[in-house]
Amino acid sequence: MQATAQKVFDIDKIRQDFPLLEREMNGKPIVFLDSAASSQKPSAVIDKLNDYYRQGHANVHRGVYQLSQEATTAFEEARELVREFINAPSSKECIFVRGCTEGINLVASSYGRKFINEGDAVLITAMEHHSNIVPWQMICEERGAELRVAPVNDEGELMLDELYALMDDKVKIVSLSHVSNTLGTVNPVKAIIQKAHQKGIPVLVDGAQAIPHTQVDMQELDADFYTFSGHKMFGPTGIGVLYGKEKWLEQMPPYHGGGEMIKTVTFEKTTYNELPHKFEAGTPDISGVIGLGEAIQYIKEVGYDNISRHEHELLVYATEQLSQIEGLRIIGTAKDKASVISFLVDDIHPYDLGAILDKLGIAVRTGHHCTQPLMDQYGIPGTVRASFAFYNNRADIDRLVEGINRALKMLR
Question: What letters, b where the CB count within 10 A reaches 16 and e where it falls short, cover 127-164?
Answer without folding.
Answer: bbbebbbbbbeebbeebebeebbbebeeebbbeeeebe
